[in-house]
Amino acid sequence: MDDVVLVQRILSGDQAAYADLVRAHQVRLLRLCASLLGDATLAEDAAQEVFFKAYQALPSFRGRSSVSTWLYRIASNHCLDLLRKRRRERTESWDAFIEASGEQLHELLADSRDPADTVADRELIQRALAHLPPDYRLILTLREIEGLSYDELAGTLQCSLDAVKARLRRARQELLERLRHFLSAGSV
User: Fold this and answer.
1) What CATH number did the domain enclosing 59 receive?
2) I need a surface site. Which of 5, 40, 116, 143 has the fewest CB within 10 A?
C-alpha cells in the first residue's frame, strides 16, 4: 500500500495503518540507526523513538518529500543528536552495523578480494567508518548501504544536489584515506 494512503489512514485514526507503516520502514530505519550509533540496543531504542516522533509529527507532514525521506530525516537528526549527547563516551563498536549491512559493505572496497579476506575487509571497513565524522558515516550509509538516490539524499539531508555530491565525494575520500592509513600501518 502507498505510504501517502497509510498516512491519510493514520491521520483518520486507523492504528492498523500505523503498524503497516512501521513494518514497511522498520528494517531500513533500524539499519540506519545501527550504522550511525554502532550499537544494536541503542539502535532499537532510537528506531522506536523515531517512529514515536514521526507519529507525533505526522499531522505536520506536508508531502513535499516521500514518507521514507521524511523518516530518514527524522532518524538522521535523532541519531546525530544522540551522538552529540554521548560524544565523551562514544563507542567504536560497529558489530551491529556489519551485521545489519551484511555483504553489501564488502562492496565498498575498490578491488576484488579473495573470499578468505572478507572478515579482514569487514574489520578494516568497520575501523575506517568508526573514525569518520558522523555526517560522513550518515551519507555513506544512506548512499552505499541503503541505496538512496542523489535526489533522496538531498531531501533527507535537506541540502542541494550539488551539496550532496560534494559531501559524498569528501566522505568517500576520507574513507579511502582511512582505509589506506590502516592498510599502510598494518593495523587490521
Assistant:
1) 1.10.1740.10
2) 116
